[in-house]
Amino acid sequence: MIDTPEFSHIVRLSEIGSKPQTGKLAADAEERNALALRFDIPKISSMTATYKLIAGERGIAFTGSLASDLHQSCAITGEAIPVKIRDEFDILFVPKPDPGDLEEEIELTEDECDIVEYEQAQIDLGEAIAQTLYLSLDPYPRGPDADEVARKRGLKSEAEAGPFGALAALKDKLG
């Protein structure tokens, strides 16, 4: 049995006509709390997306913008810091290939859309938006006191810890 995602909004392919559809999705408090737990962040205060859905030859194009206010834990202090996410998304839903088919590798450039596979003639707009939010999160958020706390703990700055910092340290040792 497949678990339903926390923020699921299923659209059947039969509901998508030849004309573009527009809409807005907003996560309620229960969905936001469940997503915060899944993403291991303290809180998601709001999450909305406006979108356009267009059926095409390559698949179902799903474009729009995501807005979310949330809290992430500072990577240095652990303190919850407020974060505003404002991101555009460009996703192409394509049918999941049959296991017996030879899969053709698709190479995407940075400017091209993300590809999400679907099955059972339905797509989940909510899960695609949730994944977009997750990918928009800073993996190492830093609060306003992070540099001071790092210095007090003896942690190296990014410049000191990086490859050029190591070269500078070697140069200092060599005199």
TrEMBL record:
<dbReference type="Pfam" id="PF02620">
    <property type="entry name" value="YceD"/>
</dbReference>
<dbReference type="InterPro" id="IPR003772">
    <property type="entry name" value="YceD"/>
</dbReference>
<protein>
    <submittedName>
        <fullName>DUF177 domain-containing protein</fullName>
    </submittedName>
</protein>
